[in-house]
Design a protein that fits this description.
Helix Hairpins, 4 helices, 0% strand, globular
Length: 89
């Protein structure tokens, strides 16, 4: 369910804005999206795991707030990121 250190490093390298970036909104949203996808798969197989469902809802809320922050700042960058991540259908 959780991300391995190697996978997290791959995500950071793929979405970082500059060479030493590890915590920009882009990186945080990408990591949260990966965690949300993994947790969603877990909940498809374990539908009665309500503690994980609560954690999923918290992650979705955190990602939603970060996306709202990005949308407020630069709409074209926001649209490019959601397109790249494949979220918001």
């Amino acid at each position: 369910m959780s991300l391995t250190q190697e996978r997290k490093h791959e995500i950071i390298e793929g979405y970082q804005v500059h060479e030493t970036d590890t915590g920009s909104a882009d990186v945080q949203i990408a990591i949260l999206t990966e965690r949300i996808n993994r947790l969603s798969e877990h909940l498809r197989a374990n539908s009665k795991d309500h503690a994980s469902r609560r954690g999923l809802l918290q992650l979705i809320g955190r990602r939603k707030r970060l996306l709202a922050y990005m949308r407020k700042g630069d709409m074209s960058h926001y649209q490019a990121l959601i397109q790249r991540l494949g979220i918001r259908g």
